[in-house]
Amino acid sequence: MEILRVFNNNLVLARDAAGAEVILTGRGLGFNVKPGQRADPARIVRTFVPSDGRDPDHLAELLAGIPPEQIQLVTQALVAAGAGENLTESATAVIALADHVNFARQRQQAGMEVTYPLQAEVTHLYPEEYSRATKVLAELNARLPDPLPEGEAVAIALHLVNAGFTTGDLSFTYRMTGVIQQLVTVIEESFGLNLAPNSVGVGRLITHLRYLFVRIQQHEQLSGTGSIIGDAIRETHPRAVACAQRVAHLIELRMGSPLSEDEISYLTLHIANVTREGNPGPNGDQAGS
What we know:
Blueprint: E1 2-8, E2 11-15, E3 21-25, E4 46-48, H1 56-64, H2 68-80, H3 85-88, H4 91-109, H5 119-125, H6 127-143, H7 152-163, H8 171-191, E5 193-194, H9 200-217, H10 227-236, H11 238-255, H12 261-277, E6 279-280
Antiparallel strand pairs: 1-2, 2-3, 3-4, 5-6
């Protein structure tokens, strides 16, 4: 592979045989070499392939500031926790998580304590990612001389959520989490229900909202695909329609984008479905229509 840029002695940007830009790491890989030369295959330890249009230079600069042993530590923890190839082979996910762990260790060594305010939201909205994050944290701590605090599982879970989307930095996931929690609360209040976070309907609703926000960010809302379905939904679920319109208004306020009629129709369908599963609150009744 041809070296395009040397970041430090252990990291270079290169072009592979297919012409794609990749990030290579390995002890001494960049020592005393220049752009245009060939990378020594014997020194390459790991190859990161940027995906989803991520800028290779930006990822490489971020990676260059992380000790190589931290990358290895995070990769080992992800594999041991059964995170799957989609995470362990994702340059963006591994680098972002390694950067977080590196900074968390620096904070710990400096005696700084961090409280993550989204713990309730994360455990409620992303139970699968949070469960996996606790396993990743346990695997990290099994390999660290000074274990990280349990609260770091919240931040790790958010990184795992973020890894599932092409949304860029973690700020989008933080904002999305807060908005989803607000919307779930609105649905509960509208119907006087307590929604069980582990129910099938709530899980489907949250998954739908997560992908809805990605569609909003990418300007690819559903449109022109479900008008007949939408008419039927509006006829049979008037209360869910009213709630969906309220939810759509909040999404427009928080995300800065109005929802298409089709998006509101599908929201209505999910709301009608989830409210049939809910338990009546102290002042409410169970009704999905």
